[in-house]
Amino acid sequence: MWCFGAMTASKFEAGGSRLEVPSSFQLPVSSVVRDAVQRALQEDGARDDATTRALVPPEQQGRGTIVAKQEGVICGLAAAAAAFAALDASIAFEPLVTDGSAVAPGDALARVSGPLAPMLSAERVALNLLQRLSGIATATRRMVDAVAGLPVRILDTRKTAPGLRALERYAVRCGSGHNHRFNLSDAVLIKDNHLAACRARGLSIAQVLEEARRGAPAGVSIEIEVTNVDEAREALDGGATALLLDNMPLDEMRRAVGLAKGRAQVEASGGVALDTVRAIAETGVDAISVGALTHSASALDMSLEIEPV
Q: pLDDT at position 8, please?
């Protein structure tokens, strides 16, 4: 049985303290994959494929090979296999690489064989999922490689495609990245709009943090977003143990990291790209969260080459 394994909490450490970055993804991957695949097949009308029904007889057999057309990191083989199996359980799916593998153009990724009609009807859904997840894994690996040798973790965010968050977070891990909070219930993250709402009631940052500590469920981590050194200092003086530096210039980021050393974990976010991530990491932050890993990753190009028999 295909199994990604349960997602566990990611952690990053510095300054003698630890920030938990929890994940609530503990579902058996079979149900996660099955639900995503079923929604995609229904959306695509795969069980009512007018073209294939008109042209391919049910008894015709075929085989095919999924081939990479770009260099990248593979992720989502289980989802591709599930798409074919959902339309016909007799279709055989043989992976030729594993999730997390680096591939080059022309590399064979998997072989499929069996009844040709359902194979053709499932093709687009299988490739869509495999291409998207591989694109995320590839983008993540490039970002991780860009900060190689530095004590920093690359994190994802909640900027995921609706309904695919669990799979996209898995893709980040396949690319050697780490997961931030899975959803809003996993951690307290006090962002600019929360602060604006609290300031409208006359609360200082220290008072905001105190209210968060009183109101948060036991054991849930608390992080606060700051945009300049003064806010970082105020948050630290208010007992913050995790700071999110949002779109902060590098010189201010270094100063904030210096203030937080030994007192709080520091995460950088905003304006992170492949050509800027190393400079951000060199400021000494513990983690860098990158929404683009999931919201802007390009699908990894690949195709299914069919041979009717």
A: 34
Per-residue pLDDT of 100-121, as tens digits, reads 999 999 999 999 999 999 999 9
Q: Are 19 and 221 in contact (CB under 8 A)?
A: yes
Kindly name the residue from 18, 34, 111, 124 that is annotated as catalytic.
Answer: 124
Query: Which domains, from first to last, does the chain contain?
Result: 28-143+298-308 (3.90.1170.20), 146-295 (3.20.20.70)
Is 124 labeled as catalytic in the residue annotation?
Answer: yes
pLDDT in tens, 182-192: 999 999 999 99
| Residue 11 annotated among the catalytic residues of the structure | no
Cβ proximity of 251 and 284 under 8 Å:
no
Per the annotation, the verdict on 159 as an active-site residue is yes
Q: How confident is the model at residue 41 (pLDDT cuts 50, 70, 90)?
A: very high
Scanning the chain, the segments in alpha helix (DSSP H) are 29-44, 50-55, 77-87, 116-146, 165-174, 192-199, 205-215, 229-237, 250-260, 277-281, 292-295
In the set 18, 34, 142, 159, the catalytic residue is 159
The residue annotated as part of the active site, out of 191, 192, 199, 251, is 191
- As a whole number, mean pLDDT of residues 73-98 equals 96
| pLDDT score recorded for residue 124 | 98
Dihedral angle over CA of 148, 274, 180, 153, nearest 10: 20
Q: Is the pLDDT of residue 29 over 90?
A: no
Of 156, 168, 223, 225, catalytic: 225
Residues 18 and 44: their CA atoms lie apart, in Å, by 45
